[in-house]
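User: For my dataset I need records formatted as: sequence, then structure tokens, nothing else. Please produce one.
Assistant:
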Amino acid sequence: MTSLFVIEANRVLLNQAEGEPMLIKGGITGDSFSVIHSFYRGWIPFGYLRDVQGVWWFDGRKTKVTLVSRRADEFRVLDDDYGLDAMHVYLEDKLIPNSDAASFELLPGSPYFAKDKQRLYVKNGDRFHTWDDIDVETAVARMDYCTDKDHVLHLYQSLSYANGSKDELLGWLQEAHPHVQGWWQPDYNESEHGAEQIQGYWYRTDRAVYYCEEIGGSGRKGTRLVYNLVRGADPASFEVFNDQYARDAEGVYCTWRKATRADSQTFEALGGLFGRDAQNIFYNGYAVVGADRDTFQCLLTSGSLGLSKDNNHVYHAQFVRTSRPFGHPDYVLEQLPGADAKSFTIWSDNGSWAVDQDHVYQWGALAKKLDRASFTFLFDQGVESWAYDKHGLYNANGRRTVKGIDGQTFQAFNRYWGKDEHNVFCFVTGGIQRAADAATFRVTDETGGAEDAYFTYVITDEGTIKKSKK
């Protein structure tokens, strides 16, 4: 069998299926060269290599190596992604900050999870992140589920809480982990049995506090309540701010998570997922990097857009890493690039449309193709949100541009009807009325009545158009 690597004149080369071997860039030499571990992703080779200088990560896509560790004699590999020396853990060529090599191990039962004495590590394809809210002593895994003594976590594109799935894992945990003390044991100390409502979604017993979720949708058959333990919360000193935030003597909590770096004594809720303490602004329990606490304004507290601003920046919620380089993803507040804080204004109640002096924004993101000078917000009607500019007519629900409408000549009569030079449009049905005569079309009342030279039109209670010949 042909070796993957070949040494020529103290250089390391990669053998090719066809043609001459290719020089591996990056600085590795043939002096004391060996392969620690190699594998393929598809047909592309990767792995850890060693020479006299140390340990290298080899990337077959670039035919290049990166020096990972000088501790070549102490280096070991756990699987295709993790390498360890005496002090550190590496993900391919990247040092994982604050990882503990001595206690690092893969969790049996799943290809996705590892842990050390401090946290959980999650790897799924080319996605990787850490997870701090875990009791590592009781952490166990089963394929895309990981659980500790208090919470169930589920991995899809990233890790998230899944306490509503406890019933699915109960039997397996009782059989496979009968000696691990956790929520699946009858003598679990933090059981929600007997919990009483404090306010809203917040409940407590003498021993613990819970945040209650309704699973299955409001009013639907099969709806059930899931009690999420607020880990570490003190029932005696627990105080509720609103449906999202609460505190005890030692910390602040956003739903059942402890808010990052929040001061319990000075914290106040600002509405929705917004809050602040004496030093920082918070959104969804995470401090907002760079926000000016004294001039910060919550522009939209409902929903999940997170639209807000201070004297210097406009902010919106984004599903991104909660910390760099490997923090788990969640909704955090980030600066909206290019937005002018002084002139930024929300025009629709649900945040579907906003503007500053130069730009239009749809659902908290720049709408590059819309013309600010001619942009006009019309109205919200249920889930529909209408606006137009010189280029066309738009519905923010589905980010839809109405085909066939000329924005230059469009005029809206009311919440039912509008027209351009050639077409009549009905906002209720969301479509052009091909049979209507735009030249003679006019509204006759404010309840949906209209006419043209040939027909009268009425909007029915069912949201359809009743057309009658004159």
